[in-house]
């Protein structure tokens, strides 16, 4: 039984993120025992109807909990962060109108960030420009960026190839400094922002196990089916969605040179590397959100909580209780404020 019917006019969200394979989905699902929730996907792979096994997509259609943003893209198009935020804002209103709490769950950090920050809608860089930038070393890119926009280069690690490419793509496409397009802090509601982690050895073991489990579930067959469509094949190779490109390359390799174990080891290593990048990004995001709340008078009074939970060490039920108690407190404060304003 839910401890409270959330029927008043309130705006509160739970945001759960963390590196791949930490157990975000299970954690979010357990919240339904105490709170009236609806789960909102923020993992890019699960947007796509055709990508299921290799994205570890949950069996969301069989769940009694309402799920959103799963299997919403049938082709090879993508959602930008501003597009995701726009769709999310509309969805949150619908969930609140039903008296439920949205639980935004995923490891695609730029979509998680979109809940807190409003990004500028930018022109798309050309394929030729992106290929040119991506072929250059991080050091060369950083020096170019530092020359045109020292303020932006000072905030990007000289080894962060992805963000350097993105910044210079903005410069060449928009004709303005990337620092002119700093995201605006504008959270969509009061929130509980929880990052899940695990001890490194356990996390890496879980990643290795997940690769094997997905293979047993038919991942290679899923990729074989996608490879029959030239558009999907090209999309997966360019998108570099971890594992799909490696398995496509494996399928294209002559039999005499095929080595599935080697390909799976590469996928596991790339996934571990990705998990490290996720951890770094989320630490920075939590720090930025905290600083934005402290320096922005408009949002300073916003009810919020920012936490990190190590699932290797902590009592999972205790964290779920703390989160549920905070959610109830946020709703109680909303009622008191509403009554006070009558």
Automatic annotation (TrEMBL):
InterPro entries: Dimethylallyltransferase, IPT, P-loop_NTPase
Domain of life: Bacteria
Marked site positions, Interaction with substrate tRNA: 108
Cited Pfam families: IPPT
Residues given in the record as substrate binding sites: 20-25
GO molecular function per UniProt: ATP binding; tRNA dimethylallyltransferase activity
Biological processes per GO annotation: tRNA modification
Residues annotated for ATP binding in this entry: 18-25
Listed cofactors: Mg(2+)
Top EC category: transferase
EC number assigned by the record: 2.5.1.75
Extent of the signal sequence: none
Keywords: ATP-binding, Magnesium, Nucleotide-binding, Transferase, tRNA processing
Catalyzed chemical reaction(s): adenosine(37) in tRNA + dimethylallyl diphosphate = N(6)-dimethylallyladenosine(37) in tRNA + diphosphate
NCBIfam families xref list: miaA
Its biological purpose: Catalyzes the transfer of a dimethylallyl group onto the adenine at position 37 in tRNAs that read codons beginning with uridine, leading to the formation of N6-(dimethylallyl)adenosine (i(6)A).
Quaternary structure annotation from Swiss-Prot or TrEMBL: Monomer.
Similarity section: Belongs to the IPP transferase family.
Name of this chain's protein: tRNA dimethylallyltransferase
Organism: Candidatus Chromulinivorax destructor
